[in-house]
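Consortium newsletter contribution from the modelling node. Members have asked for a concrete example of what our holo predictions look like. Here is one, prepared for the magnesium ion complex that several groups have been discussing at recent meetings.
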Amino acid sequence: MNTLVRIQVICEDEEKGRKALKQAFDVFRKIDHLTNRFPEGELATSSPGDVLNINGSAGLKPVKVSVDTVRIIQRSQYYARLTGGAFDITIGPIMDNWGFGKGIQYVPADEEISRALSLVDYRKVEADPGKGTVFLPEPGMSLDLGGVAKGYAMDEAVKALREAGMKHALINAGGCVYALGTRPDGEPWRVGIQDPRSNGDIVAILSLKDSAAVTSGDYQRYFEQEGVRYHHIIDPSTGKQARDLIQTTVVAESATDADILSTALFVLGPRRGMSFVEDLPGTGAVLIGPDKLVSVTAGLIDQLTFTGNGGYQIVG
Ligand code: AMP
Ligand code: MG
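And here is the predicted structure:
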């Protein structure tokens, strides 16, 4: 998943804790293997995972996949429909265009983008949960689960920790955080929301308990050309960078949902994003625009403490 995964568990039985940690890390490895488009190191030498198989069989035949892969795809498709395609896991050809994942990073010509865009359409994905198969009907189509895989892995890792009897844990996987239970002193976990324009600084502190907070940003993966930042979150309606926000954080009980939504809201932008997420029960969001204006959903205000750093201004 191209990121550092840090898992902290607090428990009295050290051996039990170590075992739980190992199981949780194994979950991340398993989901990484299933979903990775460009395996490196250990993953490259093992048998190909589901996404590699699905993409390799585009236009040819349905591929038998694991239950996890079907679940990830179904949840993604659910939100793809809800967001009118702002979230679209068939974004693969466009990501390749911009050189995210593999290859050289450069600004593609408009013709390249429109050619790739003709292959991007979540409605074409044929997922059959009964048979456990997935099919991309056109050659050249490819799935990119980069906007959801971490969150799903997180939920499964949390499940593993709970099954192993863990009551207090904090997982952090590159912008994706899950607070299991409370801190050992009974207080909620406190998690910083990063300043999108100042590495290491914090815009706000979030109190979290049994929920996920997932952040998407234009600084997580990008390249610069002629002074312009080209980042990795693409508006599927244009094939180009979504530019109405620079950072989104979504809080929800499900890390899968929060991960999908952080990416989706980034694409929707502040206006459409806020009206969409305000209607989703159990879901909060903090959206930061290029003008340093911060929008917060009403239900989340009580869980947030703004630091006042960086000149951010809260609206609404
Ligand atoms: P995240 O960091 O969770 O916002 O995910 C960003 C990643 O999701 C990118 O690196 C791509 O792999 C993928 N992605 C980019 N744009 C989209 C989109 N509009 N819908 C779904 N996935 C996307
Ligand atoms: Mg995401």
